[in-house]
Structures are given as structure tokens and as C-alpha cells.
Design goal:
Number of strands: 4
Structural class: mainly alpha
Number of domains: 1
Strand order of the largest sheet: 1-2
Radius of gyration: 15 Å
Low-confidence stretches: 1-34
Order of helices and strands: HEEEEHHHHHH
Largest sheet: 2 strands, antiparallel
Distance between the termini: 24 Å
């Protein structure tokens, strides 16, 4: 497993949080406000929160939900495909779902060749590209 993928999953599992970063009384994660993560480390740290920051772009919030195994929440954010980045994440999500015909349509809408490599590598590459571009 790639280091980023392993890190994205560290501390989070389906159905809840695996460790730390919680306010014991409320059972809720508390993180400082941030407009967009500066790097992958900030992105990974944000995964213990209840939701991604609302001021992140939809494509980045969708990757956040995907990293937590929340496919439907991720899909809902990019379902309309309003930007090339949203179309690109939408394609990735349909490929993760196993719907290659639908994924191919969204790759076409994003104006990029269809990716057929490992899914986690595709997600990591998307995250790095978005962060490098300022999200």
C-alpha cells in the first residue's frame, strides 16, 4: 500500500474513529478552521473531524469523504460535475464503484484519458495535484 494511502486510512475506519483527537465528553473531533489544506499531512489530520471544512472546494471535500469510505457523500458533492476537477473526481468515484461506462463518461467530461491503474494511486495523484494547484 502506498504511504499516503496507508496514512489516509490510519486512525479512521468504517463506522467511526479508531483513535485520538476527540473531545471525550462530546465524542466530536475538534480541529482549527482552515480554508484548504496546505499539504497531505493537513489533509490526513482533517480526517478525524466530523466533516471537511465547508470552504474547501467540492472536489477536495469529495476526496475527503472517499478517504473515509463515505462513497455516497463524496458522490453527492461532485454529482453535477460543475468544474473539470469535479468531473475528474466524479470519474474516479464511479470507477471505484465499478461502473466503468459511467466513469468513462466523466473522464470524457473532464477531458482526460480514462485511468485504469490502481484506484488508490489515482486518488493519491488527484489529491497531490489539487493541493499543488492550491486545491
Amino acid at each position: 500500500m502506498a504511504p499516503l494511502v496507508r496514512s489516509l486510512r490510519c486512525g479512521v475506519h468504517r463506522g467511526g474513529l479508531a483513535q485520538g483527537g476527540l473531545d471525550g465528553a462530546a465524542g466530536r473531533a475538534h480541529l482549527p478552521e482552515m480554508s484548504a489544506p496546505i499539504d497531505e499531512t493537513e489533509f490526513r489530520r482533517s480526517l478525524v473531524a466530523d466533516a471537511p471544512p465547508a470552504d474547501w472546494p467540492a472536489h477536495l471535500r469529495a476526496l475527503w469523504h472517499d478517504a473515509r469510505g463515505e462513497w455516497q457523500a463524496a458522490h453527492d458533492l461532485v454529482n453535477e460535475g460543475g468544474s473539470p476537477a469535479e468531473c475528474r473526481v466524479h470519474a474516479y468515484l464511479h470507477r471505484r464503484e465499478g461502473d466503468l461506462a459511467n466513469a468513462d463518461y466523466w473522464y470524457w467530461r473532464a477531458r482526460v484519458p480514462a485511468d485504469r491503474g490502481p484506484l488508490d494511486v489515482e486518488r493519491d495523484l488527484l489529491l497531490r495535484r489539487f493541493l499543488a494547484a492550491g486545491a
